[in-house]
């Protein structure tokens, strides 16, 4: 018996690794009509892990001080061996992670995977979507460039439109009347400590809920043998006759992860300027407002919406109502039908919503 096998046997006798592997890998059956869209969850776990690792490496040299932050980022980019690669991976990774997250939510919408009994899965996923946007926004200020400084000023200004609590919230977020060193300290703490911890906890809850309810079979493709959901009592939705997670679906997960990494690294090496504009390479100057300050692409639709309406409060109200409706969709859409082609009204609303979001994003980019 080789040393490796002896070591495995020693650990297995004390932990029961083989039993866990049988139950969670080879014994964990998925719908036999499961498709590649379901692997976006694994892609997002890898994307989050890349952000955590690259973020921790950046912390070795980054200085969260308004006087030193920009210089420390330049030092990372120009002096630290492979520092440019770590920073680009972190900056590009935040964009590609949000793109994968949007695709994951769209696939859940189209395949009706948010429906009963998976309302809590949807709510936890929606919370993750909001938290990821929050961690991206707080990380935007870290380089202390003209772009990050004024983009944060514009973003926090919009909160002031809220009645009564708006001005107080702006001052709380900034740590003062204006964006300054105190803002950098608060955003840095949120970005590296509070939000990653909360996101990790919600991911655990999301996976726990997925395991407890069972995987929702796609509403099309091969017929599935899932046990039907009975609303009068809890029942795990098993898939007798389905495919094992290992090795069958793990290969699909691996394929999707490799495609994601190929796109991600393609952007890093062949389009490294993607997450930056010229203002990102100029240190922050509170006395010089750039001519054109725009948020990241995933906030452009929100940005353009605020510009369309005559006052910011109305724009924020419309956006808040849309987001609330999306979060509570499982409680509004009670029909058990999940096939997208058999839900023409829903499909029309989804396609219309996507086209509107794209139009506002393009408009915001060129406005």
UniProtKB/TrEMBL annotation:
Taxonomic superkingdom: Bacteria
Location within or outside the cell: Membrane
UniProt membrane topology term: Multi-pass membrane protein
Primary location recorded for the protein, binned into one broad class: membrane
Gene3D superfamilies attached to this UniProt entry: Cytochrome Bc1 Complex, Chain C (1.20.810.10)
Family matches, as Pfam families: Cytochrom_B_C, Cytochrome_B
Keywords on record: Electron transport, Heme, Iron, Membrane, Metal-binding, Respiratory chain, Transmembrane, Transmembrane helix, Transport
InterPro entries linked to this entry: Cyt_b/b6_C (IPR005798), Cyt_b/b6_C_sf (IPR036150), Cyt_b/b6_N (IPR005797), Cytb/b6-like_sf (IPR027387), Cytochrome_b_N_euk/bac (IPR048259), Di-haem_cyt_TM (IPR016174)
Keyword Oxidoreductase: no
Domain Cytochrome b/b6 N-terminal region profile: 7-219
Molecular function via GO: electron transfer activity; metal ion binding; oxidoreductase activity
GO cellular component, one term: membrane
Biological process, per Gene Ontology: respiratory electron transport chain
SUPFAM superfamilies attached to this UniProt entry: a domain/subunit of cytochrome bc1 complex (Ubiquinol-cytochrome c reductase) (SSF81648), Transmembrane di-heme cytochromes (SSF81342)
The name this protein goes by in its record: Ubiquinol-cytochrome C reductase, cytochrome B subunit
Native organism taxonomy: Bacteria, Pseudomonadati, Thermodesulfobacteriota, Desulfuromonadia, Geobacterales
